[in-house]
Amino acid sequence: MKIDLRKLYASNSLPINEDIQIPADMYEKMGVLKMDTVSVNGIVSVNYDDNIELNLHLKGSFVMPCAITGDEVNVPFECQIEDEISENSLNNNFFLDLLDILWENIILEIPIRVIKEGAVTKHLKGDGWEVAGE
């Protein structure tokens, strides 16, 4: 998702209402099996210091394996991004790619593991070991 900085500085703000697809190579490293399109809504604006302010709302879902059964579990997420990007960090580019910023915030919503509702552990003992209590 790229923002044309010339258009942004000319109008001082741009509304964002897009659905984006996160590339599979980004989320597969995090234990996520599938990721639906992410809805991005909000506004990108220029403040009095000529820095870029992001006020975005993200909503989507991803699929992770259940830690007990291995079944697929749908995990919805929602997050708010309120960030400021310094004009100096833009390196005279004409476009601002928001994908990395969006991904940094989505990654914070990914749990370490998920357990499917109603999942039951069946094997509480094995060869030479057993679970005494939980």
Structural description of this entry:
The protein has 134 residues and is mainly beta. It has one domain: Beta-Lactamase. The chain has helices at residues 5-11, 24-27, 99-107, and strands at residues 2-4, 13-20, 34-35, 38-46, 52-65, 72-85, 95-97, 125-126, 129-130. The chain is elongated and about 70 Å long. Strands 2, 3, 4, 5 and 6 form a 5-stranded antiparallel β-sheet that branches. Strands 1-7 form a two-stranded antiparallel sheet. A two-stranded antiparallel ribbon has the order 8-9.
Write the layout of secondary structure elements.
Layout: E1 2-4, H1 5-11, E2 13-20, H2 24-27, E3 34-35, E4 38-46, E5 52-65, E6 72-85, E7 95-97, H3 99-107, E8 125-126, E9 129-130
Antiparallel strand pairs: 1-7, 2-4, 3-5, 4-5, 5-6, 8-9
Outline of the structure:
With 134 residues, this protein is mostly beta strands. It is 15% helix and 43% strand. It has one domain (2-130): 2-Layer Sandwich (Beta-Lactamase).
